[in-house]
Design brief:
Structural class: alpha+beta
Distance between the termini: 37 Å
Strand order of the largest sheet: 1-5-4-3-2
Oligomer: single chain
Shape: globular
Helix content: 25-40%
Radius of gyration: 14 Å
Number of strands: 5
Amino acid sequence: MTRPDPAAVEAAAAAIVDAFAATDGERYFAAFSPDATFVFHPEPRRLENRAEYERLWEGWVADGWRVTSCTSSDPRVQVFDGGAVFSHTVDTSVETSDGPESYRERETIVFVVDGDELVAVHEHLSPFS
């Protein structure tokens, strides 16, 4: 198995954060495996695949949602044979049809090595307390 370079994991996570910060769904979702799962504290249940999350995202955007800023801090990378876990604190501001919202969360992204690339297979957000 291949242990990914921690710098490559940080770069893959930064690409996800950058795409999210730009509300660039195409670039954002391209970083995730089609069978990736997502656990977000505001959602009532786990999203079982990327397509399910993409439909949710499309609904948010159709309702006027967009990200106005997203900043990562306190990153930690843990590598293992075949993948890595990236965790960090994320400060996000969005615009919604109800007005602006901001929040601080902890996020974990699990990556697997797929050929020469790192692909995200799980994302988890929890409130920062």
